[in-house]
Amino acid sequence: MSLAALQPSTAKEQDYLWTLNFGPQHPATHTTLRIVLKLDGERVVDAIPDIGYLHSGFEKMGEHLDYNQYVTVTDRMNYISPVANNVAWHGAVEKLLGIEITPRCKYIRVIVNELARILDHLLSTGAMGLDVGAFTFFLYAFYQRERIYEIMETLCGARFTHSYTRVGGVMHDFTPLVIEKIRQFVRTFPETLDDMERLVNRNRIFVDRMKGVGLLTKERATNLSATGPVARASGVTRDLRKDEPYLAYSDFDFDVCCATAGDCFARYYVRMAEMRESLKIVTKAIENLPAGPANVGVDERTALPSKSQVYQTIEGTITHFELVMANRGFTVPSDEAYAAQETANGELGFYVVGDGSNVAYRARTRPPSFIHFAMFPELIRGHTLSDVVAVLGSLNIIAAELDR
Amino acid sequence: MPADPATLEALKSACGELPASEFRGDTRVAIAREKLLDAMRLLKEVRGFDLLVDVTCVDYLNYRDAAHRFGLVYLLASTITNERLTVRVYLDEPDLSVPSVTLLWSGANWLEREVFDMFGIHFEGHADLRRILMPEEFTAFPLRKDYPLQGRGERHNFERIARADA
After folding, report:
1. B53–A347: do the CB atoms touch at under 8 Å?
2. What is the pLDDT of residues A147-171, one digit of tens each?
3. What does the DSSP 8-state code read for residue B31?
4. What is the pTM (predicted TM-score) of this model?
5. Where are the beta strands (DSSP E) in A100-182?
6. N or C terminus of chain B: which is more exposed, having fewer CB within 10 Å?
7. Do B23 and A336 touch (CB under 8 A)?
């Protein structure tokens, strides 16, 4: 795309301005996105985002893959916390299909969801630190991400793209080893969190780079459709876990972390505080994990039965065939449903249209990164070139989710 | 959380009788295109729907019993009362234009651009309606149902630049 095409017609012609092409291949964008900056010296006069480099038609694929297959694609949206996307996708599908999942499954999904939130916040705060020069901080964060990856590997065999949920349940139930690993993580993680906070919270360079940069007021945040930590750092108290309790979130006692400053530091601070709250939820959930099956019963014909059920019981065999045969499958209403969940980045929702077949007629994702990146020009105007990476990091733009 | 009945009453008194339905706790109303902007202004300014959650579109080309080709979907929420409401606008070819809601919610900017890019719906009054995910040279609208998943020469309409001209 030519530069002239990107220019909004309202931009004034000022020939002393520099045009700087930031991205699409730049280490500080972390992924593939491009921003055309107009600079007056070091000051950013205007920023024009140009996205679509990673567009690969995920929503079109959603119209051709069935409700269980599409979960592998949702992994690749926000690949920093893939399992949260899995849970959100199947949450929406189950709402459309009218499936009530088991109490144990709800707790399992809460635990993996909160681990995903920690996973995401560790990367976004870590990368924020990295971009403004706090390299040790980033390494501390990545070491702990590795621990969560180990838990997920034990749980479902994949480190990165988990595809953990299924319609009506999950791929595998928690094993004692997984529970032990989560317990161990919950024990050891607060120490690192303390270390991380000690490293940068009062660090002069870090604070000076983050405070007062990328200001977003409460009114603008809501008007620009911001959700999640970005909105909460501006004083919007909305958290779907509290406001529209889904899964088993009403069973847990946790705080919604908010700040009022609305700058990069507030967004960093909210994320750090949210990790502690997530840890509280995981600790409580893992100790109170309900007994019973993780998947809905064989009779309901929604979740794939386990192999032992398929081979040893007639109901298991029938259910298996009913679900995998091309002309059978789920009972899907010809209607549409929207279900959203509070993921690490904000409200991740899926608008699913069913047409009676096994494949969604339309699978729309409400991507928080896409909506947050739209406000980037407004946040960066008037700041210096070096603040671009700080603002970008604080919004936690994941280009795969941005472009889908 | 489903919408407050008072919201629907307010909408009805402003825009006349509306087809409203409820499915699994979601309240949906269908609004005629001519009344969309007034209805949205009422919802935002009087009924407190301050958050535009999403704007999207569904192409009902092969959908059973569908009366219209396109259905625009506006998902609204209130950050104070947590009320949610889905507003639908149905469109038919050849007139695929609808007033833009960017003046009410700035967040609609990119969402409407994406719908334009993927479905070719024209948002009147949008300040910067350009393709957002697909390249500028692209001629088709990929999320329409008549656009195949594979098999069409996606690159046929791209400008060819010789090395000497680059």
Report:
1. yes
2. 999 999 999 888 888 889 988 888 8
3. -
4. 0.89
5. 165-166, 169-170
6. C
7. yes
